[in-house]
Amino acid sequence: GVSIGPFCTVGASARIGDSCRLHTGSHVTGHTELGEGCVVHTGAILGADLPGRTIIGENNVIGNYAVVGVKCQDLKYKPGDECFLRIGNNNEIREYCSIHRSSKSCDCTVIGDNNLIMGSCHVAHDCKIGSN
């Protein structure tokens, strides 16, 4: 029940859950897990070919050209560190958002369940956002 549109990329280590829809030109790379029922809109980029992991729960909507689970913008980041992002269930992440992985192996950027991350927002490394 997975739908992958034209010009999409799904990396060798990526995992796509049942009933997910990837729209044209969206990309899921690196050690990224996409839960059941997620929708990834045109041009969105999920994950990166870096050590660490991006885990996205079920029934999330990722907007056009959002960038989720990439390397943090922190000068203290050391190349090769495993960094993490965990997103819960039922979130709507709107167009042009950026959400970065943690800046160090002992931490994790976290977004809970049932949130609206409005267009063009930035969730920086190591942030913790609850639910609702």
TrEMBL record:
<dbReference type="InterPro" id="IPR001451">
    <property type="entry name" value="Hexapep"/>
</dbReference>
<dbReference type="InterPro" id="IPR010137">
    <property type="entry name" value="Lipid_A_LpxA"/>
</dbReference>
<protein>
    <recommendedName>
        <fullName>UDP N-acetylglucosamine O-acyltransferase C-terminal domain-containing protein</fullName>
    </recommendedName>
</protein>
<dbReference type="GO" id="GO:0008610">
    <property type="term" value="P:lipid biosynthetic process"/>
</dbReference>
<dbReference type="Pfam" id="PF00132">
    <property type="entry name" value="Hexapep"/>
</dbReference>
<dbReference type="InterPro" id="IPR011004">
    <property type="entry name" value="Trimer_LpxA-like_sf"/>
</dbReference>
<dbReference type="GO" id="GO:0008780">
    <property type="term" value="F:acyl-[acyl-carrier-protein]-UDP-N-acetylglucosamine O-acyltransferase activity"/>
</dbReference>
